[in-house]
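Task 17 of the worksheet. Students: predict the tertiary structure of the chain below and write it out as structure tokens. Keep your answer in the requested format; marks are given for formatting as well as content.
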Amino acid sequence: MDMQSTLDAPTKPENPTKVKILDVAEQAIIEHGYKSMSFRDVAAAVGIKSASVHYHFPTKGDLATAVMRRHRETFEQGLKLPKKKRQAAQKALNKFIDAMAKETVKQDVLGLSTVLTAEKSLLDEATQAELTAFYELKMDWLSTVVSYMKKDWMPTEEARAYASQILASLHGATVVASATGKAEEFELAVAPWRTLVDRI
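Model answer:
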């Protein structure tokens, strides 16, 4: 999978109201959860009527799906594979870890995907599909980066196993840091991955 997004055709400018709705909805999910997010509250924060939110997103599921899709696409646009050199790969992984810490730990919030995962049973199929695609995107990128760290060829299964462990560690670390209110817990949990290149 190519981690660098390509545009087949020029995209149309986003409707400002639609963008604002997505911004407010994403923040509402992060702060209060999917179940608590309401069209009424989103509309009030945007400064429009609930009917206007329904015009752009007929159902709550449509809105959540759009929020998750935008989050995934934005994330994908920022992903780039490093050079196929061991230290470059480790540096890329460390930047990935830093970005996750900046997005969640330093702001004392859980990430959008973590919050939605906790409420997965409440999501419709389209939103769940976007959530799955987001995690698969991370897994694919991490697998490739880890494979660059080994001097010799690394089997796909081994790279995938490392990616799964790293991703689980990162997400778990954000939860622990949030639950304890101790940002340092995140770094303690992820520290081994910052020197992974020295062990494989």
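Marker's comment: Residues 1-11 have pLDDT under 50 and may be disordered. The radius of gyration is 18 Å.
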